[in-house]
Write a structure and sequence with these properties.
Distance between the termini: 47 Å
Number of helices: 19
Length: about 450
């Protein structure tokens, strides 16, 4: 179920928020006096009461400003300690305090909203909430009627635009829905806007954009994925190649950052039907995993499985031995590091067995399925969909080999579980019944 976007303010039972909110109601500052540092206009004549009232307002407003600075500092500490939910709460508090201090129509309120949206996306993985707050930030910036007073402010506004359009683009890509345009097109459109603002930002920083929350690599990866979603495979590959070149230039050619990049590039090459190029990229990813984590590690196991599937996808006869080699390397590494009952181990065994059956090696497929049956029962339970599927596959192999008695036993076990799970009239139950009927003829 998709979570509903959180409406601001959302911090309930928060003494800091309650205090700041009531204080802001008592000390409403007129729009023309809302500045970063409220100060009396020079040359104006004020009564003693007016002066005291202004001093009181300034003193009252200093508390929210201190709270805002504290929250901004706390966010970085919480993210470093992987306390993402607490960090997100602080981001919400920053929005509330920014509204109190600057007003709802100020660009700094948009900055706080954009940062909150980015937090929902990267810290919480909630694209619906991220999109909601990014749209709010965009609306504030579009309706803001003020002017920037310094180069620093102009840079901060550009950074905010980069962040909010990046967030909108990635959120659309993840949500896969938009009321007017297909989400993949809207995602690319927003990411292009982010890219244009990044170019402006690079000019203002004289070529360097280090230290930004959304890096150039983050943006290029998102553009690559959006291009892939829009079936613009050549463009997607160009974006990923730029990121790889950047990573190698900054971190060398043996960094873990390159593993996922090579794997995504391999996926693009497979879609382009350049299987040899895909295999080369996956070999590079595998070499890095083995170098950094050793050959018997979950990372190397995953890289081996992807390499095995890439060799299988090529359909080349000369790659047949490589498929078996890398599948077995993956299974062995998973069994050693995660255990024989782990989901990744069992899934890799199933994928290998499917390939073995397709290539006529039914005996080896049956041996592997039978060897891991106990682990299947432990992991998924006696009456589970996965166990029924395992009995069905083993029964089909025995049927194909002519071992009808053994096939009947396995398929009856499968049917009993399927009836318990799906019922007698489900398509899976009917398929198993039909297979048993064919055996009896």
């Amino acid at each position: 179920m998709q979570a509903s976007p959180i409406r601001i303010p959302t911090v309930t039972n928060d003494t800091d928020w309650d205090f700041c909110f009531h204080l802001s109601q008592q000390t409403k500052i007129p729009e023309h006096q809302r500045t970063d540092e409220s100060s009396p206009t020079s040359g104006s004549e004020e009564s003693e009461e007016d002066t005291k009232a202004k001093e009181k307002a300034i003193d009252c407003m200093s508390h929210p400003k201190e709270k805002l600075a504290q929250s901004q500092k706390k966010i970085a500490q919480l993210i470093k300690r992987k306390k993402n939910i607490e960090a997100n709460k602080e981001l919400i508090r920053c929005v509330i305090l920014s509204r109190i201090i600057f007003g709802e129509e100020h660009w700094k309120c948009a900055q706080a909203l954009a940062t909150l949206a980015y937090g929902y996306l990267t810290l919480r993985g909630l694209p619906a909430q991220a999109k909601k707050h990014a749209e709010s930030a965009k609306n504030v910036l579009l309706t803001w009627k003020g002017t920037t007073t310094s180069d620093k402010e102009e840079k901060q506004i550009l950074e905010t635009l980069v962040m909010l359009y990046y967030t909108l683009g990635v959120a659309c890509l993840l949500q896969n829905q938009y009321p007017f345009l297909p989400s993949r097109i809207w995602a690319y459109f927003n990411l292009q806007k982010s890219e244009r603002n990044m170019k402006e930002l690079r000019k203002s920083y004289k070529g360097s954009t280090c230290g930004l929350q959304v890096s150039e690599n983050d943006l290029r990866i998102a553009l690559g994925r959006a291009s892939l979603a829009n079936c613009r495979l050549n463009l997607a590959l160009i974006y990923f190649e730029k990121v790889v070149d950047n990573v190698i230039a900054n971190k060398g050619d043996n960094t873990s950052d390159l593993v996922s990049l090579y794997q995504e590039m391999a996926q693009i090459e497979q879609l382009r039907r350049n299987h040899e190029h895909a295999i080369q990229y996956l070999h590079q990813a595998h070499s890095i995993c083995v170098s950094l984590y050793t050959e018997v590690s979950p990372q190397a196991a995953e890289a081996s499985a992807l390499l095995a599937k890439a060799y299988a996808m090529s359909g080349e006869v000369q790659h047949k031995d490589a498929v078996g080699l890398y599948f077995m390397k993956s299974i062995t590494a998973y069994q050693t590091t995660l255990g024989p009952d782990d989901y990744e181990t069992l899934t890799t065994v199933e994928e290998f067995c499917k390939w073995l059956v397709q290539n006529g090696e039914k005996q080896e497929a049956y041996r592997l399925l039978k060897a891991s049956l106990r682990s299947h029962l432990i992991s998924y339970g006696d009456c589970s969909e996965k166990v029924a599927e395992r009995f069905y596959n083993m029964g089909k192999i025995c049927f194909a080999k002519g071992e009808l008695r053994k096939a009947g036993q396995l398929l009856r076990k499968c049917l009993m579980i399927q009836i318990l799970i799906y019922g007698d009239e489900h398509s899976k139950s009917r398929d198993t019944k039909n297979l048993l009927t064919r055996m009896q003829r």
